[in-house]
Structures are given as C-alpha cells and as structure tokens.
Amino acid sequence: PPTSREVRARATDSASAPGVTAAPPESMPATASTAVDEWRLIGVAVGADGAVTAIVRGQGDVYLARAGDHLTADVVVSEVGEGGVRLQRADGSTIDLRLP
C-alpha cells in the first residue's frame, strides 16, 4: 500500500485492471456545493474487497482516491460512492462530482 495519502496515477482504463470492476452510476444525496470546473470525475471502480475508488482528474493530474485522501493541500475526498464523489476544500466548501 502507498505510504502517502495522496495517490497519483496516469489515466488508464480501470475496468481492465485485475480485480477491479467499473461500477454503474448511483445517486448521491444532494447538498449545497460549489461548482468548480477544475475537477472532473472520470470513473469509479469497486475492488474485489468492496473498496470504492474514484478516478478524478484535476490540476493537471489524475488521482485514484478513496475517502480521506488529499488531492491537493487544500482539497480532500470526503465521500466516495458508486455514482459520485464529494470533495471538501480547506475553506469548508464542497464540490460534488458525478459520473456523466
């Protein structure tokens, strides 16, 4: 396992990775959020152990992230579901990302 909470990866087809299957979109509860175009959810994968990992693009990188992972110094993944991700900024605002 990585020693850092921040995990960066090159964009790959996660559905073809061994032990990982792409998950269908599922609704996340609607809450107030800040619309930001700099972050985009490009996929969600569920491992054989049931762990949900989000594939997020932003700031010129692609991240494989789970709840609690820091994408940048001021952006942390607060929730990961099969249909979306919630990011929390250091100022307390949230960014909800959903699969298209």
Kindly summarize this structure in a few lines.
The chain is mainly beta and 100 residues long. It has strands at 8-9, 20-22, 39-47, 52-58, 61-65, 70-72, 75-80, 84-89, 94-98.
Name the features.
100 residues, globular, four-stranded antiparallel beta sheet, mainly beta, disordered N terminus, five-stranded antiparallel beta sheet, single chain
Which secondary structure elements does this structure contain, and how are they paired or packed?
Blueprint (H helix, E strand, L loop, with lengths): L7 E2 L10 E3 L16 E9 L4 E7 L2 E5 L4 E3 L2 E6 L3 E6 L4 E5 L2
Antiparallel strand pairs: 1-5, 2-3, 3-4, 4-5, 6-7, 7-8, 8-9
Written overview of the protein:
By secondary structure, this protein is an all-beta fold. The protein is 0% helix and 46% strand. The protein has no helices and nine strands. It has strands at 8-9, 20-22, 39-47, 52-58, 61-65, 70-72, 75-80, 84-89, 94-98.
